Amino acid sequence: xxxxxxxxxAGGGFxxxxxxxxxxxxxxxxxxxxxxxxxxxxxxxxxxxRWVLLNASPDLRRQIELTPALQPQxxxxxxxxxxxxxxxxxxxxxxxxxxxxxxxxxxxxxTPRVLDVLARNAMFNVxxxxxxxxxxxxxDHPSELLDRYGxxxxxxxEAFTVPxxxxxxxxxxxxxxxxxxxxxxxxxxxxxLAGTKSFFYIPGCASMPPELAARLTGAGLVMFDGTTYxxxxxxxxxxxxxxxxxxxxxxxAGTNGSLNAxxxxxxxxxxxxxxxNTNPALLGDTLERRVVEAAGWEVGFDGMxxxx
Length: 308
Ligand code: MLT
Ligand code: MN
Ligand code: ZN
Known about the structure:
The chain is an alpha/beta fold. The chain has helices at residues 22-28, 60-65, 91-94, 112-120, 210-216, 233-236, 258-262, 287-294, and strands at residues 2-7, 41-45, 51-54, 81-85, 106-110, 132-136, 143-146, 152-161, 186-192, 198-202, 221-225, 269-273, 297-299, 305-307. It is globular. Residues 10-11, 90-92, 168, 204, 247-248 line the site of D-malate.
């Protein structure tokens, strides 16, 4: 199984279009310790030929141009991308579907809740229903990932709910947890059909309840929410009045952070993805980067390849 990090950034990417923070300034200046990140997405393949996207980012077009494996391989119009699996309905995870609108057969997998959000947004009808099949993911129920015509991709997916919230653009301000339901945010376990190789992908997760910790215990590879280093980072930077947990993300540091929560779980390889531009650990030369690496984490980057 091969995994490519298409985008290791969070929503907005790095540098973010309207941000002139120290990190974003360094990225624009071409600082080698501040390498740009596109928005959150992975590609995975069992055979190296047919690829499934895990989330479809607004930067998908650029990500394809930077990733030869995802470019057309035969004459005329074609794509090695046979489908996509979505973790939530956030803009950074769904807007890339609009990039794949040019008459290409695809299978799009998401929870019924997220499919319902897409169905109610008429713009996604640019995905021609004759060619693009939308398939519900039942949580806690592993299912084979099939292309549009029912051919196996050699991969299996299991979606499971994780603490989080409804997409930012669907928040109901007066409702409990903003009107979120459990299926608004899922993590994914991707396996080969033999079940010998697998990894977890959890780009958004607000906390680590015991049942989720148990699920991740002993995993070979976990690619996890690295949005912020500190829970109050966006507030301190003066960019937002929201903590990371309010936005549906665990910070790296802190008592309830992912360094503490995942450290003791005996995971083989831990990689941060969905890294926000304010996060000091995304820079190669910071104390925070040294802290996460000393704790055994890798910081994901665009183009990172992992072979299982
Ligand atoms: C998030 O991960 O919290 C969202 O992608 C935020 C956003 O939609 O900008
Ligand atoms: Mn996001
Ligand atoms: Zn910035």
